[in-house]
Amino acid sequence: MAGKPKLHYTKGRGKMESIRWLLAAAGVEFEEEFIETKEDLEKLRKDGSLLFQQVPLVEMDGMKMVQTRAILSYIAGKYNLYGKDLKERAWIDMYVEGTTDLMGMIMYLPFQPADSKEKHLALIIERATTRYFPVYEKALKDHGQDYLVGNKLSWADIHLLEAILMAEECKPDILAAFPLLQAFKGRTSNVPTIKKFLQPGSQRKPRPDENYMATVRKIFNI
Ligand code: GSN
Questions:
Q1: Ligand 1 midpoint to CA 34 (Å)
Q2: Please, what are the domains in the chain?
Q3: Beta-carbon contacts of residue 191 (< 8 Å; ≥ 6 apart)
Q4: Rg of the chain in Å (alpha carbons)
Q5: Is the pTM of this model over 0.70?
Q6: Is the CB of 55 under 6 A from ligand 1?
Q7: Whether residue 208 has its Cβ less than 6 Å from ligand 1
Q8: Which residues of the chain fall below pLDDT 70?
Q9: How far is the CA of 64 from the centre of ligand 1 (A)?
Q10: Is the CB of 213 under 6 A from ligand 1?
């Protein structure tokens, strides 16, 4: 039997966090090897483990997988979270890319210069409430089902819940005008595997703080 997937990344969210979420929601146990210094990253590069000299890296099923989107698609496909046909897959991809764009904006907030942080935060809140959340609210309203695609939990739902929780860290009442998303959040947070991941002590990572940002800047020469 194949061993557990092994995740190589820094000890924070970044581009790996959605991979942690998806594996956890799929009920897959995984190991993590943290990159804590520039030398740790250099070692992976020298070993030839990184196809494009970048992380995230996930060792899984005999592959050394890189490129976040490729890793996520593989996991979604393998664990039946990627729709029943090409059309469902296309919808899942569209929803996922929307939440990826929103999460990307949130992810880059700590990298903004101090004098433009407030402006960036305002843009995140505006985009979340006028561009992204209305789409998911409408999808749930139009089909009246519990999940975004195919009446079944998929990668799109897991990714959306992650984005909602990140957006709430920016503005706790950000879902105020979205009753169906509030219900969606409650429902998906109670899926047993997700519920477990949301509990303290799981492999979910905290919001980046100043210490973490300093470490990341050093490791990646930012
Ligand atoms: O999505 C992906 O996995 C790739 N298209 C990008 C991965 C990437 O940018 N990785 C960064 C660390 S995560 N932060 O953004 C990385 O390895 N940077 C070092 C480098 O030399 O590019």
A1: 15
A2: 6-79+198-214 (3.40.30.10), 86-191 (1.20.1050.10)
A3: 25, 153
A4: 18
A5: yes
A6: yes
A7: no
A8: 1
A9: 15
A10: no
